[in-house]
Amino acid sequence: MSFVQYSDLIQDGDVIIVYLGHNSVMPVKVQHGAQTQTRYGVIRHSTQLIGQSYGSKVTCSKGGWVQVLHPTPELWTVALPHRTQILYTTDISIIAMMLELKPGSIVCESGTGSGSLSHAILRTIAPSGHLHTVEFHEQRALKVAEEFKEHRVDHLVTVRNQDVCKDGFGVTGVADAVFLDIPSPWEAVKHAKVALKKHGGHLCSFSPCIEQVQRTCEVLADQAFEEISTVEVLLRIHDVRTVSLPLPDFGPDPSSQTEPGPEEEAPPTPSVNHASITMKTTTPPREMPGHTGYLTFATKPRT
Amino acid sequence: MAENEDDNQYRIEEGDNVVLKRGDIYKAVQIQLKKKVIFEKQWIFLDNAVGQLYSTTFEIVSGGNLQPKEDRKEQDTESPADVKVAGTDNRNIVDDGKSQKLTRDDIETLKEQGLKGQEIVQQLIENSSTFTTKTGYAQDKYIKKKKKKYENTVTIVKPTCRVLAMMYHGREPGKICHLRYDTLAQMLTLANVHAGSKVLVFETCAGLVLGAIMERMGGYGSVIQMYPGGGPVRAGVECFGFPAHFHNTLHEFPICHVNALLAGSLDTSAKDPSAGENQIVDRQIGVAAEEQQNQPELEQQDGGPEEQSMETSSAEDQENLEKEKRKEIKAQEKKSKLEEKRRKLAAAAALLGGRNADGLVIASRFHPCPVLLRLIKFLSPSRPFVVFSQYKETLIECYTKLKEQGGTVNLRLTDTWLRHYQVLPNRTHPVLLMSGGGGYLLSGTTVAMDHSKPAGSLQAEGPAPKKQRMDEH
């Protein structure tokens, strides 16, 4: 198992995703002799996980069953332990496309936070790219570095514990793309410019507040960034449902009876007993995340 | 010196696939010498771009030739609004169509005199009786609008998934089933497309989706394009201008053989095509391939006007001998083409045969349900799939069928909402127009089929859905 390469069988030391049901997943580090408690009972790693195929069903001690899935950055995003507010797949997707990430890209990122975006970046730039990620919170930096190792992507990433606004990214003229998710991105724009390649590159800044966007855009323009554009993207979930809608009783319809037309006219009047129509449709969730953050993209031209 | 070497990989060369850009308008072209290209109703020659660096902005000068635009910065700051006079509001501005003293003909004359976009805008401002009474904001907006209209520049950029997805969505959304670029972005992550994996693609989006996937795989792993009809459509893939070795990772398999492959009647021959006993099956494949080949061949003839004209003239002038020779060559070509096709089919069938693909992406004008239900069988357990459709109902059907047959988890029907913002001091707000919809996605993860289920599924009709629903919540 690795976050950048699939394998078929679960091995000792793998990090797997246990699928408990809709919207409920938990990450499990597989260790010989260990056990994991779920709401369906205990899973014994040695006998029930190691050597099993990814995607297989595991029956827990209380008789309930779960599925064991190979980790992907997308599953990790919904399973990971939150140490900060995180970026979700919808925003991550558009970030990856607009920053033109692909195998071999060199990317700078700050802050690392809980590493949700970092894993998606690593997946996309492997096997030949590199991620330089800067996190000013020491414990978070240490924790995420440990996770990268467990997920077998540590060869693709350098974690730096420093303040990007003061100390920059620690690299010069190497990056194809820079991503900023920090409280005052405008203070890091000049460092982003330094980190980006001489021939140019893309920048993205994620900010929840429009005032942050405002200030960042001004600084981007001052620093001669081009194609500055701000977007917001929201995920809308459609829950598939079978619904039954009753039909009211309109009473006898004299017009349809007096009509001299063909006999087929009669059946449309529904019999009172099963006067309802059943169909498959979708309903929106009662509540949804209505705002994550604004994404500001800009291009650094060749200098 | 190192820098110069570095530069060389960013130089535009003859034969490169590039994208012309002006503002939000893109057009994918190939750099060919002495070839006229139409961009935004203008004839241009790209000859002068050769040897220049990518992302260079060019001025279109007389004769449709390109000239690298110098002092980019000066142009930007040299705002024509030296006039600092501005009004406070618009109470005195009347829309009577008389504020601009220059007529259309006047402007055309100015253009013919070779005035640059900037200069024309300056003329327009000087001849506008209301410009000085507009507010500063309105003046900015006016200049921006006119600049856009009279600007005569083009930037040449490298083709990328971002650029091409935006280009197709802006220019020819019908060709890509109205797949919006952010929806494509979602598909690439939801299917966990990455280097080294084996991805199945079924698309009728001009090759854009396929190209996007190939870009994300960076030439590592394999992509199998399942195609309908006579041959795979890859116009969009060409636009990406991938290095040659990328194409070694691309395989193709006609969707019309999927049933046979699933039934097991195709893959034995494909696995060892040299074995004598399989000749009959081979021939069958050959026949089928031949049938399919007719169509692309016709297209090829349509596409090559030179060839066509040459053929007609020779047919008129030359005698049967020539014709026969040609026929023979053609037959031989056809034979080798057929052999090539069969070899490709065998290779693709071998890749599919293990039923261990790592990802599945569907985005087509066909009903997705039967496609999904067949192709999902080629995936390993615990692998993601994503289906795009313009219509939600088709995905509801997919969802329902998958729930019935089992073998998937994490099913989700979604779409995304995308809004652009104007960000300016004191004037920040959402852009007035936004896309009404970018299409729908059904995504999920495969799991090992529960073998106890098929037996029980017949009597499960009633209670099963309820049980599933309980799982969901």
Describe what you observe in this structure:
Chain B: Keywords: Methyltransferase, Nucleus, Transferase, tRNA processing. Chain B: It holds the Pfam family Gcd10p. Chain B: Heterotetramer. Chain B: Belongs to the TRM6/GCD10 family. The complex is a heterodimer of chains A (303) and B (473). Chain A is α/β, with parallel strands linked by helices and 303 residues long. Chain A has 2 domains: 57 residues, Vcp-like ATPase, Chain A, domain 2; 171 residues, Vaccinia Virus protein VP39 (Rossmann fold), CATH 3.40.50. Chain A has 9 helices and 14 strands. In chain A, the strands form 3 sheets. Chain A has an 8-stranded mixed beta sheet, with helices on both faces. In chain A, strand 5 and strand 6 form a beta hairpin. The relative contact order of chain B is 0.09. With 473 residues, chain B is an alpha/beta fold. In chain B, strands 10-9-8-11-12-15-13-14 form an 8-stranded mixed beta sheet, with helices on both faces. Chain B has a 5-stranded antiparallel beta sheet with strand order 2-1-7-5-6. In chain B, strands 3-4 form a two-stranded antiparallel sheet. The interface between A and B is large, with 68 and 69 residues.
Strand order of the largest sheet of chain B: 10-9-8-11-12-15-13-14
Pair of chains with the largest interface and how many residues each contributes? A-B, 68 and 69 residues
**CATH overall fold name of the domain at 161-266 and 344-460 in chain B:** Rossmann fold
DSSP helix fraction of chain B: 40-55%
Strands of chain A, count = 14
Shape of chain A: flat
Put simply, the count of helices of chain A is 9
Mean pLDDT of chain A: 93
Primary descriptors:
heterodimer, A: 303 residues, alpha/beta, Vcp-like ATPase, Chain A, domain 2, Rossmann fold, 2 domains, eight-stranded mixed beta sheet, four-stranded antiparallel beta sheet, flat, B: 473 residues, five-stranded antiparallel beta sheet, 15 strands, 18% strand, globular, disordered C terminus, tRNA (adenine(58)-N(1))-methyltransferase catalytic subunit TRMT61A (chain A), methyltransferase (chain A), tRNA (adenine(58)-N1)-methyltransferase activity (chain A)
